[in-house]
């Protein structure tokens, strides 16, 4: 091999390295879910107007009455929110108090969603600017938080609730009430 041979192989080696790097990143995509930094901390102070005429709005003080509950962040325009509706109804039928926060939604769209998929919520607040959503560390919809009776966030469930998640959420609620 001549002395200039490395000039031929170096670009080829660099290209192979780049292809290998890109390939590994494609095979193991980055984590897209962002866990809340608020777990173990009290809810920020907030007051949200009602998002539905048949349910009251919600304030942080409503979640400090000694009773653990689910705080469900959702939107009528969210397809996974519709997919989790049967599980929320199942939880509500088992006595779970579920408070909803509708994100960037119009009252008529909230009403249509609830009419179509059911209304498991005891309260629904309208978070038109996503201030509460961002304040509790939610990065998307749907997300569900378990809030203990003192208003402290104990658990965050990212994504839609599926049937297999219901027992785990019931257990986390029991732990939050202990």
What does this structure look like?
By secondary structure, the chain is of the alpha/beta class. The chain has two domains: 1-30; 47-177, 3-Layer(aba) Sandwich (Glutaredoxin). It is built from five helices and seven strands. It has helices at residues 5-27, 79-93, 107-117, 131-135, 166-177; strands at residues 47-48, 58-59, 69-74, 98-103, 121-127, 143-147, 153-158. Strands 5-4-3-6-7 form a five-stranded mixed sheet. Strand 3, helix 2 (79-93) and strand 4 form a beta-alpha-beta unit. The radius of gyration is 23 Å and the shape is elongated. The termini are far apart.
Quick structural overview:
By secondary structure, the protein is of the alpha/beta class.
User: Which parts are unreliable, with pLDDT below 50 for 5 consecutive residues or more?
Assistant: none
- Structural shape: elongated
Please name the CATH topology of the largest domain: Glutaredoxin
Give the N-to-C terminal Cα separation.
75 Å
Helix content range: 25-40%
* Assigned CATH architecture of the largest domain: 3-Layer(aba) Sandwich
Helix-strand makeup class: alpha/beta
**Please, how many helices?**
5
Sheet of most strands? 5 strands, mixed
Q: By CATH's scheme, which homologous superfamily of the largest domain applies?
A: Glutaredoxin
Q: What radius of gyration results from the CA coordinates?
A: 23 Å
Q: What proportion strand?
A: 15-25%
Q: Give the domain tally.
A: 2
Query: What are the secondary-structure elements, in order, as H or E?
Result: HEEEHEHEHEEH
Give the CATH level 1 class of the largest domain: Alpha Beta
- Total number of β-strand segments? 7
What's the pLDDT, averaged over the residues?
Answer: 90
């Amino acid at each position: 091999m001549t002395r200039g041979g490395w000039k031929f192989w170096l670009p080829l080696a660099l290209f192979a390295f780049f292809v290998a790097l890109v390939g590994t990143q494609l095979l193991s995509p980055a984590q897209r879910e962002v866990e809340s930094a608020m777990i173990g901390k009290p809810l920020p102070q907030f007051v949200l107007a009602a998002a539905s005429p048949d349910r009251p709005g919600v304030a942080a003080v409503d979640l400090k009455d000694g009773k653990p509950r689910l705080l469900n962040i959702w939107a009528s325009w969210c397809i996974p929110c519709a997919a989790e509706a049967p599980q929320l109804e199942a939880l509500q039928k088992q006595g779970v108090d579920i408070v909803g926060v509708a994100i960037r939604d119009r009252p008529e769209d909230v009403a249509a969603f609830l009419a179509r998929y059911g209304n498991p919520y005891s309260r629904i607040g309208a978070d038109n600017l996503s201030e509460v959503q961002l304040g509790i560390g939610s990065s998307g919809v749907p997300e569900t938080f378990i809030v203990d009776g003192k208003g402290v966030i104990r658990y965050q469930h990212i994504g839609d609730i599926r049937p297999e998640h219901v027992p785990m959420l019931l257990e986390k609620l029991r732990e939050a009430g202990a």
